[in-house]
Write a structure and sequence with these properties.
Elements: H1 64-74, H2 84-93, H3 96-105, H4 110-135, H5 140-166, H6 178-188
Helix pairs in contact: 2-3, 2-4, 2-5, 3-4, 4-5, 4-6
Length: about 190
């Protein structure tokens, strides 16, 4: 290497300043500063930044970014590590039974709990009506309609809960009258 080479690549001399030091940068690498952009502040302790320990500015334990990342991750986490989209869809598949199972076991994820409440509020009255229709010997045509009402809306809602979690970023599809009540119950917990 010649003495005219100003590159300090892999220079281990004790007096060499760190590469992110603004005073160290040559004239070719200096950017044009504009009045409407703030001047870059040194963030590294080695380049003159203020050392802070475990505070939000330093990104330590009290970091705001960590809290935001943790809250964003908690939207997608369930108590036992199941997928949110599958858990929300499962709330509708077995009617009030799966809704009750999820309401008892899932305590961390509001999206899954919302769909469990909504499933319970949708399928329990339909199941009770279907059972009463059988016990009271309603005509077969009415029992068929009630059976279809017991099967088709929960299947659609299971598909909708899966799609809303998998593709739409946990958007809650609310059934009229039932959805706002389920939402209110989740918020009251």
């Amino acid at each position: 290497m010649s003495s005219t080479n100003t590159s300090h690549f892999a220079s281990f001399a004790a007096y060499t300043p760190p590469p992110d030091d603004p005073a160290y940068a040559g004239p070719a690498s200096k950017s044009i500063s504009r009045a409407w952009f703030p001047a870059p502040q040194p963030t590294s302790y080695q380049s003159g930044g203020i050392p802070t320990f475990n505070t939000s500015q330093a990104g330590g334990l009290g970091s705001a970014e960590d809290a935001e990342a943790e809250s964003a991750m908690s939207m997608w986490e369930t108590r036992y590590g199941f997928r949110v989209d599958l858990s929300a869809a499962f709330a509708y598949l077995l009617g009030p039974i799966s809704a009750l199972i999820l309401l008892i076991t899932e305590t961390h994820n509001d999206f899954v709990r919302f769909h469990a409440y909504q499933s319970a509020l949708l399928t329990t009255p339909l199941a009770v009506l279907r059972i009463l229709a059988s016990l009271l010997h309603f005509p077969a045509f009415l029992r068929l309609i009630l059976s279809l009402l017991l099967v088709l809306p929960p299947l659609y809602m299971a598909w909708r809960a899966y799609i809303d979690a998998a593709r739409n970023g946990l958007v809650r599809f609310q059934i009229p009258f039932i959805g706002p009540l389920a939402e209110h119950w989740v918020l009251d917990e």
